[in-house]
Amino acid sequence: MTLHLRVGFMPLVDCALVILAKDEGFAEAEGLNLELVREVSWSNLRDKLNVRLFDAAHMLGPAAIAATLGVGGVKAPMAAPLALNLDGAAITFSVRRYEELARLAEGDMADTAISAQALAAMVERRKASGLPPLTLAAVFGFSSHTYLLCEWLAKAGLVLGRDIRFEVVPPPQTVEALTSGRIDGFCAGAPWNTAAVAAGIGAMVHCGVDLRRNCPDKVLAWRADDAERRAAAVSKLNAAILRASDWACQPANLGRLAMHLSKPDRLALPADILEPVLHGELLQGAGRPPRKVERFIRFDREALRPDPEHADWILAGMGQAGQIIRSPEMTEQARAVFRPALFAGSASPP
Question: What is the pTM of this model?
Answer without folding.
Answer: 0.97
